[in-house]
C-alpha cells in the first residue's frame, strides 16, 4: 500500500524533527532531512498498523473486512 502524507520538518540545532498532521502522534527525528523523513515514515507505518489491529478487536464475526484504495 502506498499513500502520501504531509511531513512538517523543522531544524532544532543539529537535529531535524518532523510530525505528520494527518496522523496524530507520528513524529520523527534525524541528523539529516532524509533520516528524519525515514523515521517519520516508520512512525506512521507503526501507528497505522497498530490502529488496524485495534480495529479488528471487538468486531462482530459477521463484519466484512475489505480494502479501499485512496489515490
Nutshell version of this structure?
The chain is α+β, with helices and mostly antiparallel strands and 71 residues long.
What would you report as the Rg, rounded to the nearest angstrom?
Answer: 15 Å
**Number of DSSP-assigned strands:** 3
Overall geometric form: elongated
Number of helices: 1
Strand fraction: 15-25%
Helix fraction by DSSP (H/I, runs of at least 4): 25-40%
Largest sheet: 3 strands, antiparallel
Distance between the termini: 11 Å
Spatial ordering of strands, largest sheet: 1-2-3
- Quaternary structure type: single chain
What is the arithmetic mean of pLDDT?
93
Low-confidence stretches at least 5 residues in length (pLDDT < 50)?
none
Order of SSEs: EEEH
The helix-and-strand class reads alpha+beta
Descriptive report:
- The chain is of the alpha+beta class and 71 residues long.
- It has a domain at 8-56.
- Helices cover 34% and strands 20% of the residues.
- It contains one helix and three strands, in the order E-E-E-H.
- The chain has one helix at 33-56, and strands at 8-12, 15-19, 27-30.
- A three-stranded antiparallel sheet has the order 1-2-3.
- The protein is elongated and about 55 Å long.
- The relative contact order is 0.16.
